[in-house]
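Q: Sequence in, structure out?
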Amino acid sequence: MKQPAIKKTTLFAALLASGLLTAGNAQAAAGLDAVKAYMVEHGTRMLENSKKLSHAAEEYYEEAEEHHFKYPYLWKKYRQEIAGWTDAMKKAWMAAHNNYEEVEGIVAGIPSLARYDLIIDAGNPGTEKEDVAPYDLKLPDGKVLKRPGNLFHTLLEPALWGTKKEYVGMEADLNGNGRVELGEVLPKADLLYAFARTHTEWTQKMLDDVKAWQPNKDDLFTAMVTMGRRWAWPAGRARRAIGPGNPLIGLAKRAVSGVLVFAPQLADQVEFQAGSLGDLFVG
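A: Exactly. Output:
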C-alpha cells in the first residue's frame, strides 16, 4: 500500500498566514476565501497542463491508429514527431503533478473532494482491499478497465516512462544519443490516450467541485487532521534518521496544534497515538 506522502508546505503557510487558526470571524472568513482562491488557481493550472497532455496523446493516438499501431513502422517514419509528442507529454505530466501537489493535502481532507485524491493521485486498483480509486476507465475500443488505480501514478507515469511493460509499444532512442535509456519508450497509444483523456475529465470535475465548494472551518479542520496524519510518518522517519532538529517536526507539530485551536474539545478524537506523533515529538 502507498505510504503517506510528504505534503507541500505551501498550504500550511497559507492557512497560518491567513489567520484561520487564530482569527476572529471576519478575518477567518477572509482566510477561508483565500484558501478557496488558492485551490482554484492551482486547479486551473493543473487543468491547463492536463489538456496539454491529452492533446499530445490524442495526436500520437491518431497517427498510431492510422498505421494499425505498428510501432516499429511509426518510429521509423515519424521519429521526430514521436520524440516531440513524448517529450511534451512528460513535461505536461510533471507540470500537472506539481500543480496538484500544491493542493492535494486539502483535497484529500475535505469530504466532498476526497474521492478526487484517490482517483487522480493516491488510490489503489481494485485488486487491493482499501483506498481503491472509485472509477472505471473506457478505452477507445470500448473496453472498460474496472477500478484501474489512480491516474497519475498507476496509469500515466508507468505508461510515459515505460515502467509497466503492458503499457509499452516499444523501446526507442528518443533523445538520439545512440542508446536506449530508462524512460525511452513509445507508450501504447490507445492506453495512453485513454489515460490522459480520463485524467483531464476528472481534473475538470475536481475543479468544478472546488469552485462550487463553500469553505468552512469544519472542512478545514478535517483537512488539517488529514495533513497532520500524513506528516507524522515521514517526519518521524526523518527524526530517527537525522535527529530532532529537522524542519518536518515543526510542521507536523503545527498541523496538530492548528487542529486543536479549532476544536480543543475534539483532542481525544485526533488519532495521533504513541506510535506516531508521540514518538516524533520526543526530544
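Residues 216-280 form one domain.
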